[in-house]
Amino acid sequence: MTTARRTQKQRRDQAETALLNAAAELVVEQGVRSLTLARVSERAGYSRGLVTHHFGSKQALLERLAHATQTGFVPGLDGLPPGLDRLLRLIDGYLGALGTVGVLNRAFLLLWAEAATAAELAPIFRERDEAFRADLREDIAAAIVDGTIRPDAVPDEVAIAIVGQLRGIGLQRLLDPQAVNTQRLRRAVTEHWRQALTRAQT
Fold first, then answer.
1. Domain locations in the chain as residue ranges
2. Chain segment 94-153, per-residue pLDDT in tens
3. Chain centre distance of CA 61
4. Which site in 10, 61, 125, 170 is 20 to 30 Å from 160, CA atoms measured?
5. Which fold has domain 73-198?
6. What 3-state DSSP class applies to 78?
7. How far is residue 185's CA from residue 168's CA, in Å, rounded to a whole number?
8. Using an 8 Å Cβ cutoff, are 133 and 160 in contact?
């Protein structure tokens, strides 16, 4: 029985995954200011040259880490049309995923919080938050059109509030996992947004 040789792309993808995981572990353990390409290479067991080849700079590594940590965070949304159902599934799924958040997502939340005072992080996370808000705005706008969300809802304001709530719950979960039961919260938070967005104005 022979083992097929890995392709160059497979080797490259495996190396990048290992490097991103190593970077995430270092962020969680020591913070972003202690992150260097040399430390990432040492943690992952690769040469400094390979890290530089993949990312080129610490800034590029942080950008890639910010993108990688959010990819597929809430599964099952692909193929769903924009609207209230997809919005509520995203909220529910995000909170459910926080219950078993891995090192990549812990790193994302820590980096997101640090972006408020770290100049090298601020542009990265402004872009990530805007992409998140854009997805939410699409759902809210579609639901207003089809009548499932009340017409006076302001998509941008609602999107800002939802992102703030979800990220804030995630940070609380990191700080005190025992106090933040995301499995119980997901039902309450999802129902809160259902009622807030669908009830008629008086």
1. 8-69, 73-198
2. 999 888 778 888 888 888 898 998 888 899 889 989 999 999 999 999 999 999 999 999
3. 16
4. 61
5. Tetracycline Repressor; domain 2 (1.10.357)
6. coil
7. 13
8. yes
